[in-house]
Queue: 2 jobs
Job 1
Amino acid sequence: MNYLKLHPFHLLALFCCATLVALGVAPSQAYAQASDEATAEIIDPDTFIPNLKPTLSLGQRLGDIVIDGELDDTGWMNAAVAQNFSETFPEEQIQPEIGIRAWMTYDDQFLYVAFKIEDDPSSIRRSLVDRDNMWQDDYVGVILDTYGTNAWQYFIASNPLGIQGDTRIITGANEDEGFNIIYDSEGQVTDEGYQVEMRIPFRSLRFPEADVQNWSVNFWVNHPREDRNRYSWAAISRDDPCWSCQFGKTAGLEGVKSERNFEILPSVTGTQAGSLVDGDNPSSGFDNGRIRFEPSLGLKYGITPDVTADLTLNPDFSQIEADAAQIDVNSTFALFFRERRPFFQEGSELFNTNYDVVYTRSINNPSVAGKLTGRFGRTDVAYIGAHDQDSPIILPFEEQSRFVQGGSSFSNIVRLRQAVGERSFVGGLVTDRRFQEGGAGSTMSVDGRLQLSQNYGFEWHLVGSRVEEGVSEELSEDLEDLTFDSGNRTAAFDGEQYNGYATYMSFERQSDRWWFDLDHYSVSPTFRASNGFETQNSINRATGVTGYQFQPGNFFSRIQPVVFAGYEWNFDNLRKDRWVGVNLNLSMKGQTNAGFNWVIDSDEVFAEQEFDNLRSFNAWLFSSFSQTLRMGGWFNYGRRIARNADPIQFGRGFDYGLDVTLRPLSNLSFTGELNHASMDAEDDGEELFSGYIGRLRTNYQINRRLFIRLVTQYNGFSDRLDIDPLVTYRVNPFTAFYVGSTHDFNNFGAPFDGYRQSARQVFFKFQYLVRA
């Protein structure tokens, strides 16, 4: 396999070829003109009045509804109709250039939602993909605030083929992308556009126990063409940061109940792993381990309509897809990998705070884990408890972090979040980790946001930590000479006990035009988040950023210039860094975004050396101008610190990346990524490092349930090739069957003829949801 010697410009050639393909399949000018003529007759800007906080009067369905993408069932005849949609982006509160109508009705068990979109069918973007992977398509969805408090909302969506996507939105936080519910959806493209039907079980939703439900609701349409147009039933002002405060209301939703579900999720996993007998000799043969079967059990019980308990025994928390490799050749801090495991993804948005005191991947290999979540109107409560068999420990310091494996531990995490008013909240968060071999770590924090007016707000996060080190010579290896807190404490595990703190405060203006953000961070030398991901301490940081957004129309949808500056100093009151820079973001026709970020000057102190006049220039261009092709690239060049060089010195760094997604068929896609990093010594031009990581993901969706995925990744820094095939059959978000394998190839060079397989693993997993 010596022919597998890869070069980054092989993938660059693929990038250029894909560009040529896309140019050949782009819509013609004649087609665009025909589309304009077909839709011009529905535009009447002089008489259009957008819906401001409208009301939808619901009634129970009077006939049958079959979820098949057709809208001719008698049950839709008396359904409430939502119409008079308005554009939210790129324009604001104008009439859409397509026809949109939505319907909603219900019965004792289900909420029914339907959409009819009048559009040129040949322009509709639709993909046959796995669930939650349709966000680049045309799609429609309903947003439900079942408590009517603006604290959090469900977003339940479908593309024109009925492919589902759902999230949960927390006001003032990120969306919970790991959230899933069970519902039915079907869609079809028609001669007039497309239409979608959805049936949502009330047992999949949480809402108050009341005879009459007072929900906030909105209907949403994504229309990606020249721009990524978004349309909304309730008119939205982008100058008001609280979008959910502008939603409509339901009337007439009566006599429905959120059932107390009991769900059982048994699963079984089988694995067989093998590796070379002698890792340095590819001719030594494979040591194939025995086949292992691991059963596990997940239980979910709705204690009340507002409180749900989850328990998992002997869980298989291995990931179906390996993490994409990251370049860390010039970094002294640990790398962050996002959570992929569904048990921890659901509800994770509640634990997203300004300091990452909760990083659920630190619960690495639990034997048992439990969750308790409750939503009482405007109050959210969450608890996670787990016994972990292999607990990683991140040790933060001023200029680096270290990582050790701490053995088994018990973790307990409690979160409380109380919404106040329409856009403010206050929260508390407690974490505690107890190691079986001795030692513990805890944090206690309060955070919140105070909305001072429509556009101005103040945020804070105050954290206290407590560390009780265990005593371990094994964990102390390579740490004995490392000290912190001005040399008063050692990094070794020698039984020390200490307290620490971290503070964050932010004053900001949010607006669709002028905005700014003024932040202050302070992390004491003895701060540590034992259940979190904080890689640096002994630092104070003050930053400021401000920008203004122009909306000139025509070719440019948005132009946003930005100015930023910052200053850092440590707890010995010594300056660590200061910087100033400018940024420009451009949104253009063809769903194209470009810009640059220029650090004009930075003066940093690293390893007790002064590095003045550091500079960097970063530029990017990304485009989704075609359903067949999405592509982009970026580069970064600058005068930097070679942090891992010996000796540490000035360097000239050049990094670049390319991203291409080619979709020749609606059910077939190729996604390629290439990330390259290099640096030369400034004094003599000697190469300090150079390498790249290339990754190609191929997805073939056979039907809505069955798909094949192949990931190929090459790491030029380690000269290693990984090939990971996977077949998935998914009935719903929880019932699925997986079978796959991983194959690792290392370059052994002469006399072993280049690349040979060094390790492999074959696995399957079957899980089946039972709802009682």
Job 2
Amino acid sequence: MLAVLTPSNAQKTEEHLKNILADVLKKIYYDGQHAVNTKQRIDLAIFADTSTDSPAEVIFETKRLGSAEMPKGDDINCKALHELVLYFLRERTSGNTSVKHLVITDTVRWYVFDGRDFEKVFYDHKGLRRQFRDIESGNASSSKTEAFYGVAKTFVGALTPGDLPFVYLDLHDFEPALREFRFVDTPPTDPQAKQSYDRQKDALTDLYWFFSPEHLLKKPPKNDSNSLNKAFYDELLHIIGLNEVKEGSKKVITRCPSGERHPASLLESTIGKLDEVDKVRLLDDRSRYGDDYQDQLFNVGLELVITWLNRVLFLKLLESQLISYHPDDAPDAYAFLNSRRLPNFGALESLFFSVLAKPLTERPEPLATAFATVPYLNSSLFDPSELEQDTLFISNLPDDRPLPVYKQTVLQDADGNRLRGEINTLDYLFRFLDAYRFSSEGTERVTRDRKTLINASVLGLIFEKLNGYKDGSFFTPGFITMYMCRETLRRAVVQKFNDDYGWTCDTLDHVYNRIDKQDKDAANATINSLKICDPAVGSGHFLVSALNELIAIKSDLQILRERGGRTLRDYTVTVENDELIVKDDNGRFFAYNPNSTQSQRIQEALFHEKQTLIESCLFGVDINPNSVKICRLRLWIELLKNAYYKPSQAGQRRELETLPNIDINIKTGNSLVSRFRLDASIGTLLKKTDWKVRDYQDAVQRYRDAVDRAEKREMRELIGSIKQAFPVEITSNDRDVIKLENLEARLATFDQERLFEVSKAEKAAYEKTKKEADQLRAKLAERRNDPIYDNAFEWRFEFPEVLDEKGKFVGFDVIIGNPPYVRQEEHQAAVKTLLQADF
């Protein structure tokens, strides 16, 4: 890279500098992966693969140093840009839709444009495209390229600032780091030297990423969040006490064979304790955990272990977040998931319920002092679950059993060799997690950290596999969820604006052109009114992708707002590799700095936008209660990514903003079947009580906003008391129930008429009616007793946001996700009825 900063290059021709640039690109990244060469009049291009016959994905226009044809500061209306527009239109009209970036450079100064912006500004403009075609075909007064440059100059001159965004980079800013910096395994300890080392390393990291395929070609990161980290997954299964095997074409997770079970694994410790205290036999609903006692032990034990691991992994992400928020402090100040601070399972339980579940002022000593840097988040994740209340807490597990180290462990001994022997289970879990680099998001680009990145998407994939242990799991890759949500939600948003405003827009760009500055509040309200449901939510992957896409849509429409109401300027928000990417106008990734006012307002804006969309727009249902827990966890993690410190009084410790109780939007239920009519209403029942539909809706909102355990409990009880009577009235209005009542009334009439002689026709009618009533009675009995209908009521009527003022289910705007699994043929009619409902 230093080659392009050689002073003698000032005398070199464009051709010479172009060759230097090609050599640099090949050496640092692209040689053997992508062709780097000229293409017709294009100075230089990076191609889609090693062949120059493949599409050009990056187009360079190179100029000699000091050229008057280069942009000057923010004035980009220059010859180099006009040439770039011409080359782009030629590529685009010839069918190349793969251009990711376009670059103007003299090899020192770099102006980088996004291909999507060129598409929107130049190609989508019908007038400019018509003039281009006329000049290219010779129909204009002059067919020379200079004629188009004149057209382009006029067109660009008419653009307003910000219409064509770009990223600017000057290599002179990186020259000290390029000449002086050397990576070392042990950074300097002197504070001033360390600060200089970190600054230069960060500068080179940004430069390295700038030229990478992840940036220029928009390639998924090598550490793809959509890919399972097998080493992490296999060792985690070992610590839990599970085994993955192949059955036919699918992989399923099972309990380890009896001869290979380790009593110290989390699952075997839990099963052993459950059996010891005989808790499973006391469960009222133990039949839902299996047909026999051993199955019940396994399923109850696994659900408990998943609950505990949910909390631990969430806390690992939180720990990583806190450390990143305080780069100038010693990491130990914010690292709390280790055996030094949590020596046993009892201490871990205290962290769950006496630290995370309580505000700082209510924590008992010495925990308040020991965990002073651990924030209160108000997450229901740290409320004891019903199953824990009925069976075991993690503190019941024995602490004195060592677990053999996994044979392919990531852990190393003092000499750097693979660790062997046995380790206390909890210490093993903490050391194992610490061997990886955890992040709540996957946008970290290039680091010297040798630890492998594990982010929220990887955890979602792993827990999806755990939840589907019986039948095998289906985890939709991120590129699919991202594409489906983008295509579906953008159309839905356009339709929503058309419906609300009487517009006839075809694309999001048309909506953007119709939104006035005064309409931004109303436009936000329109998007926030969308109701999106995944009826087989799994780990919540589709809902997370939908959340990201909605925020990107708001950014595209320029209605993304700060908390004070101002439009969020100077930043762009996009979805790349199924991750929400926030960059400033210079292309730098946004990173929260609690000491920066600018950074604080961006973080707060993102947090509250996510909160609003999760609470107002996103709903999920799954028949698997463990999946429901994982989905709730994923949505909490999305908020955790943008957790921010609230203002504090002088001398007081800053506290993170608490998380809302978003768990109420994700429900356990069977969304394919229903005991009740789709047009059923709870309004009739509520008229006979002191409750109104509005009371139900208000109670749900009060639960979301509740900030302490007592208030949440009160709201749960209130919601429960309102719902208890729902099924009674709805059942009495069921079509089958009404039909049976009518048949029985007719039979009663027949019985009265039997006092007199009846005709053969009347007798045949009686027999037919009786048979029909018997069949309908059996059908209703099956519906009431069939376990497939468990929780079928809940999924529609537990979301008061999709009930009208009379309590009738009015449906969702968008149904996303994979089709739910239909388990029994006899329920096809109910399934068909539901799926054909007018949502």
